[in-house]
Amino acid sequence: MANAATVYLVIPCYNEEAVLPETVKELTAELKGMMDKGLATGESRMLFVDDGSKDRTWSLIEGFHAENPLVTGLKLAHNRGHQNALLAGLMTAKELCDCAISLDADLQDDIHVLPQFVQKFLEGCDVVYGVRNRRDTDTWFKRTTAEGFYKVMQHLGVETVYNHADYRLLSRRALDALSEYKEVNLFLRGIVPLIGYRSDYVYYDRHERFAGESKYPLKKMLSFAVDGITSFSVKPLRIIANLGIVVSIVSVIGLLYALISHFTGNTVSGWTAIVCSIWLLGGIQMLCLGVVGEYIGKIYSEVKGRPRYRIEKHLK
């Protein structure tokens, strides 16, 4: 087993002033505990990434940095979303650490299992996934939709870890590999399994949010799910193609029926059938155009090649 590791805890923050004092307090105690156990070196740090917060999040990070040597910070020039903020933190930590552990600022992820992450890294793992034991703290709706999302992703051929979000450890080698993925439409839960290398799991129970409000309302959750699916699978496009074949076959059958009805003299018009057919086909066409448009939008974003984030300040 290797010696103690330089560990960076990467914590994206957006309007987290309500929870930050408790988060810094608990993570400081946990990080010092790992140092005392010989798991983490004295160069280990907490890296808070302010994703363009509108409250006092950044001023709090600056204050904690001034009084706590374990606290460092990044301030992004603009709100770029959770995944980009997380990537900014990981890429900054890459040159400074042996491994980086990403986690949320709301204390829902059990920080008491952090030593288990580092222990598995010291035993030779490059990627360690934090996996929830159960979803008792979620509402029925969120639990059902989350489980459905993982099943849909698996069905579409996207490699993900069931019940894993963004609580994970990446070694420096894994971080170097992650830096080679240049897509603008980030879905780290799908990218990290593509890296390969030796991996393992740490199981934990998720807690209630300590303070503040969730940064993932239903609208953002749906958008995140769509990004994940369209960034890693072309099966929706194949479904559209197959649907087009089915509709074409049904149309040919309908045409034959109409011709037979015409030549047999049974040509009484069915208003209901016509209207229903128009609405059905119109709805299918709009849905198909929407799916194709989603992929075209992804191509548009990727081709522009704009920076995924810009760092305004870095507290070292």
User: Could you give the order of the helices and strands?
Assistant: EHEHEHEHEHEHHEHHHE
Q: What is the C-alpha radius of gyration, as a whole number of Å?
A: 25 Å
Give unreliable regions as ranges: none
Mean pLDDT: 79
Strand content: 15-25%
Order of the strands making up the biggest sheet: 7-5-6-4-1-2-3-8
Helix content: 40-55%
CATH architecture tag? Alpha-Beta Complex
CATH level 1 name: Alpha Beta
Based on CA inertia axes, which overall geometry fits?
A: elongated
Sheet bearing the most strands, described? 8 strands, mixed
**Count of domain modules:** 1
What is the CATH topology classification name? Spore Coat Polysaccharide Biosynthesis Protein SpsA, Chain A
Instruction: Give the N-to-C terminal Cα separation.
Output: 30 Å
Report the count of strand segments. Answer: 8
Number of helices: 10
The CATH superfamily title: Spore Coat Polysaccharide Biosynthesis Protein SpsA, Chain A
Q: Which structural class is indicated by helix and strand composition?
A: alpha/beta
